């Protein structure tokens, strides 16, 4: 007695495919890719600042996460960046911007 109809199985399959594509995008394509060591140092510094800023229970448990998606470095003390917030690490729900002036 299979109670699932063909349309139901197709919709579930399509949902799984979309989640796999979204996961690939979130984990592989979104994070910032730095080749310059100076940029990498700024990304590490920005990560530390954002970790302090987002230290509530939702981030500590992993329900909400963030990833740095873009960094523009003028010099070591003058930079801007963008980071994206994720629900359960996969579903993006907001972009935020960060500047070295905000420290």
How does this model look, in words?
The chain contains 3 helices and 3 strands. It is of the alpha+beta class and 103 residues long. The chain has one domain (6-102). A 3-stranded antiparallel β-sheet has the order 1-2-3. 45% of the residues lie in helices and 30% in strands.
Write the layout of secondary structure elements.
Elements: H1 6-29, H2 37-53, H3 57-61, E1 64-75, E2 78-87, E3 91-99
Antiparallel strand pairs: 1-2, 2-3
The total beta strand count reads 3
Provide a count of the helices.
3
Structural category is alpha+beta
**Per the principal axes of the C-alpha atoms, what is the gross shape?**
elongated
Number of domains: 1
Biggest sheet character: 3 strands, antiparallel
Question: What are its keywords?
Answer:
3 strands, 103 residues, alpha+beta, single chain
Can you describe this structure in just a few lines?
By secondary structure, the protein is of the alpha+beta class. It has helices at residues 6-29, 37-53, 57-61, and strands at 64-75, 78-87, 91-99.
